[in-house]
Design brief:
By secondary structure, the chain is of the alpha/beta class. It folds into 2 domains: 72 residues, membrane protein fhac (Ubiquitin-like (UB roll), Roll), CATH 3.10.20.310; 132 residues, 3-Layer(aba) Sandwich (Rossmann fold), CATH 3.40.50.11690. The chain is built from 6 helices and 12 strands. A hairpin with a 5-residue loop joins strand 9 and strand 10. The longest helix has 27 residues. The chain starts with 7 loop residues before the first helix and ends with a strand.
Length: 255
Amino acid sequence: MIFNYAMRPIFKTSIKVAILLGVLAYFIFALTTFNRPVQEPACKGLDIVVNDEKNTNFINENEIRELLVKKKLFPEGRAIADIDLAELESVLVASPYIDKALCYTTSDDRVMLQVTPRVPVLHVLNVAGEDFYIDNCGGTMPRGHHVIDLIVMTGHVQRTTAGPLYSPMACVISSDPYWRDQIQEIHVDVTGDLSLTPRVGQHVILLGDTSKIADKLERMRIFQTEGLDKAGWNKYKTISLKYDNQVIATRKQEP
C-alpha cells in the first residue's frame, strides 16, 4: 500500500472528527440513560390473613378488600414506595369490627395484611331500643348485618358505660363452658341489679352487682348439683347470690 504524505492532514482530521462524534454520542447516551427515572417496583398482589380464632365471622377477606377500595388505599398495582403501611393499619383498626392490624411488604413485592377481629361476648337489647354487642375488651360494636349466638343482655343498659361495666362479667361467663350453655339472658333492672335466666328450670338467679362474679357462679353451680338435682329444678322461684357465702332460694307459692 502506498501512503501519500499529502493525505496525512486529512487522515488526522478524520480521526479527530470520529473521536468527537464518539464522545458526543457517549454524552447523548449518558444523558438519556442516567436522567431516565428509576422504575419503582409495583405491588404484585395483596394477601390477607384473618386471625379469627373464635370464629366470629365479623370480618372477612372480601370485606377488608372492599374497605381498602372504598378508602382508595387498595395497594395492588401501586408503587411499593408509595404504599403507606401505617395508614393501612390505621384505616383497618378504625373499623368497629377489627381489633388489631399488621401490614408489611414481602420480598416478592406483595403486601401482607394480618387482621385480628374484635371478639363479642354479649348481645345487648336495651330499653332504649338499641341493638349492639359488647366485646371482650370493654368496647361496644354495632350489630350491623352480623348474627352470632351470644347471651342476650336486656333492660336498663347504658351504651356509654356497658362495655367497662359488663365485659369482665361476660368474659367470666363465656370462658366457662358450663355457664355459657346454662345462661340465656342477663337482665338489668332500673336500679342496676342483675338477674340471670337459665336455660333449664323456671327460676331466676338474682346476681346483684357484677362483683365477685366467679364466686357467685361457683356457689350457684354447687347449689344446682347438690340441691336442684335432688329437690327439682322447678321448685324455686328465685335464687339469690347477692350475699357473701350464701345462696337464698325462694320457693314457688303453691296454688
